[in-house]
Amino acid sequence: MGSLLSACRINVEKKKVEEERHLRANDREYNLSFMYANNAIKTSKYNVFTFLPLNLFEQFQRLANAYFVFLLILQLIPQISSLSWFTTVVPLLLVLSITLAKDLSDDITRHKNDKHVNNRKVEVLINGELKSEKWMNVQVGDIVKLENNEFVTADLLLLSSSEPLNLIYIETAELDGTLIKYTISILYISGEVRCEPPNNRLDKFTGTLTVRGETFALDNERILLRGCTLRNTEWCFGLVVFGGPDTKLMQNSGKSIFKRTSIDHLMNFLVMFIFGFLAFLCAILSIGNGIWEYQEGNSFITFLPRADGANASLSAFLTFWSYVIILNTVVPISLYVSVEILRLGNSYFIDWDCKMYHVKSNTPAQARTTTLNEELGQIKYIFSDKTGTLTQNIMTFNRCSINGKSYGKKKIDFSWNSLADSKFCFHDHKLVEAVKSGSPEVRAFFRLLALCHTVMAEEKTEGELFYQAQSPDEGALVTAARNFGFVFRSRTPETISLVEMGVPTTYELLAVLDFNNVRKRMSVIVRNPEGKLTLYCKGADTIIFERLHPLSSKLMEVTTEHLNEYAGEGLRTLALAYKDLDEDKFEEWKERHHEASTSLEDREAKLDAIYEEIEKDLLLLGASAVEDKLQDGVPQTIEQLAKADIKIWVLTGDKQETAENIGYSCNMLREEMKEIFIVASNTAEEVREELVKKMSPESGDEPPIEKSRFLGKKSQVVEDEKVNGEYGLVINGHSLAFALQKDMQLELLRTACMCQAVICCRVTPLQKAQVVELVKKHKKAVTLAIGDGANDVSMIKTAHIGVGISGQEGMQAVLSSDFSFAQFRYLQRLLLVHGRWSYLRMCKFLRYFFYKNFTFTFVHFWYAFFCGFSAQTVYDEWFITLYNLIYAALPVIGLSLFDQDVNDRWSFQYPQLYAPGQLNQYFSKMAFARILLHSCYSSLILFFVPWAAMCDTVRDDGKDIADYQSFALLAQTCLLIVVSVQLGLDTYYWTAVSQFFLWGSLSVYFAVTFTMYSNGMYLIFTSSFPFIGTARNSLNQPNIWLTIFLTTILCILPVVAKRFLFIQLKPTINDKVAPRKVPRRRISTRRSGYAFSHARGYGDLVTSGRFLRIPVKTRSALFPHTDTPVADSTPQTYRTIYEGAQSP
């Protein structure tokens, strides 16, 4: 067996897990001994030989496809087959062919892309000469040369570049969206590298380079990743560390979490139920056959002799399988293919929506997945980041506190500074005076801002500086220092050059203690020209205050008051501190820092411990405050979503006061709320006490929990409780850590879900994901997470639906999302329009699909009682074959792609229309049961009315037409017309395509019927077309058309009557909206210059009938923003829909 596997080149041994990578520069023979992957990539799934078998294997793993193969095998058995083989083969081949064609097209595209990438050329240093090689031939350890604007071949360790001091500029848009960043290269072209094994961490690299016995630490700043592009750099050399499938780009392109909608899970359950129901029907009919054979079968032995050994029991057994074949249409073979077509079409509608296109950034909306569209219409909870999602993430330096004094009141002139940024604006001339007068604290403050950062400076012409910052915060702070006379001019790996009040000054850069989400601070250690060592640190105030020297306690109290004031204005704050260092202690610390930085194991943990040692006993300088303005349309969008009964939770890393005031500015928190709970405790018990809130007199001490099985998973579900009034909840990260503990998380969930708005501040990326998972696990609700940065990725991946905003923080959120666009305001159109339409269309499609199939099948069931349970079909075999493929396929596709109950304007006008999706009202197990009953009734009419009409009936010329073929034609014609009329009743929005599909399908039916029942087809294929002349003999009789009309009326009348009664007695939200559709008054296109500069009008107040009451004063917006029309080019008004019987 082993030799056989070896002959087939199948590796029976598991590949040894790589624990550490070891390579030598420019030594192919040595590096090939480790059998590292080369630089060729393969994203395709199939090749010429494996495509057909592998693809068919994948398709037959679907239960419905496997079932129809089983049916085909049954039809090949003469004793039980009552249908021709083509009735199963034709639909099966069509379904398989559509999927084959789709997968083949996708894989051909992947092959072309792979070939294009693998055949790119790059210069490789081989035997001391640069030779042109294809990318796929590049090996680990090779030294390659890149030129300006070239793509990076593999993951490279940079060795040298054409730029001064070996700096390079790269575009990393394919990885994280950053436009430009810099990397410091190493001036060596030989040596040995030991580093981490291949992984998908884009922000982390750990390794060492050993050259001539000296070891250097390698980190992410020395690595150039595949997927980047070299910019503004003539050339550079790099050492290949990871190639092909081992590169971080390819490691990140693995399979993402497969998300399935609640309708998907429900469909799987229903398909399994249908299998059981089919078996039940077949069992009843087989029992009937056994009874009939036992009681009546002997009467037919003379002209229908039985086979030897045949009896009633054997006949019943064979009949069971015969009816499995006949009733197979109850199992929807084309369901999944049709659903995919529907989802794909609705995804294109999102991509093509011009009203979600952001002109300024040239960014259209994008549906990055095609499997979640209808779930956009069922969202109950939205989890949103703040910075860059609700706000613009464009920072301006507004306020500061220095040595206990607050600045930032009046606008000042910076014309005295020739290197000032003309766009910078600050409001306090006293600060300029303090800088000019030589205040040591003020100058130290701005010196820190000019030194403690990772910004890169470009000066193309004298005096014109351009800063490239990895975050808008850093850019704003460095720009502020520049305008106040401390100009950051340039940097090298060892120095930072400033212009301090016109005097050029160079500082020696000794260490950078970089920022991360855990440390929440950044420090630099520099030596000034006089030789003095200083550590400068900036970070979150809670982090900095913990590390201050006792001498700064009084200053900390004053600064805290200023920070609270700034946060109350909605500003983002940072605390700034410094520390003078002793030379000897620093040298000792530097040695231990070098050991930690060159460690291959737990490097990050060791470095954090080293950083903690030196970042102590700091002296406080002050605090900075930058403003991040709200995006256009955010308050209006949140208000609209709240009216749709969607609860919005903001998860942010900002201070509590900042987050709280953002809540007021966004209309999440309002003064008229009954109470806003603040949870900011330091112990678990205190948090528990603060979480127990009485918002309803009926509330018990424990949260109401129901054992549930939602989306296929067993879980404890916290039930919704009625609340008296509207409440808000604000909780900080420290308290949230306690509240997320297992014994307290359900209490947190109960309290939070009873609140209209929830704001979690000072939270980490992990806590964001935990909060989303908590709601997702313990609520019967669909969740959506929206963010714009890398710290939102875990939250986006955890939620049922993830939405990424392409903003200032790169593209990592977008790359991990299911849907993406440029502005938060587009979210309401995505949900209230596209989401609601997609959900409505999907539910209509499923209801109609099951109705037409069950009605078709049940007619067979009733006919069995009149044919001795002999497994005789009631329809022509060609009608059975073409019913789901042609006659009833395109109309339902037209319905499910273009139907809409109201247009997009009315969707915004009445956001309450969104509620049915949240409650699963349009399609559920109960709705499926109603479909079964409706189909049962329709099938009774469709069988018994034609049967009674045809019984003992003659033509108008006296000839008999009461034969099986005429009855089959009448029954199938009645069926097709009834299901077509039913589809017409279900269609709200008629388009030319819908009309064409419906009338075209009926026309095709009659054309095909007259053709197949013609003399010519009978003469050519006698055995395949036995219904010769049936169509022309039957359909020219008035009584046949009268029967069709009567059958249609009897099937449709109950549906129309039920809808009429429900509209009168129990109207839905849609029914309440429909009568309000009045012609719109023409709105003038002329607009004044101040049309959108005012606060929101009084539309709600006037239409509610409460305009005589004194309105409650709401808190004014603290964040200036420009109101733009959100959904359309016309102003929007909002009305309230009352659920009671009375109108407003």
Automatic annotation (TrEMBL):
Enzyme class (EC, first level): translocase
Gene Ontology annotations for the cellular component aspect, listed alphabetically: plasma membrane; trans-Golgi network
Record EC number: 7.6.2.1
Membrane topology note: Multi-pass membrane protein
Alphabetized InterPro entries for the sequence: ATPase_P-typ_cyto_dom_N (IPR023299), ATPase_P-typ_P_site (IPR018303), ATPase_P-typ_TM_dom_sf (IPR023298), ATPase_P-typ_transduc_dom_A_sf (IPR008250), HAD-like_sf (IPR036412), HAD_sf (IPR023214), P-type_ATPase_IV (IPR006539), P-type_ATPase_N (IPR032631)
Compartments in which it is found: Membrane
P-type ATPase N-terminal domain mapped to chain residues: 24-89
One record GO biological process: Golgi organization
Residue numbers binding Mg(2+): 385, 387, 788, 792
UniProt keyword list: ATP-binding, Magnesium, Membrane, Metal-binding, Nucleotide-binding, Translocase, Transmembrane, Transmembrane helix
Family indicated by similarity: Belongs to the cation transport ATPase (P-type) (TC 3.A.3) family. Type IV subfamily.
Name of the protein: Phospholipid-transporting ATPase
Organism: Cyprinus carpio (Common carp)
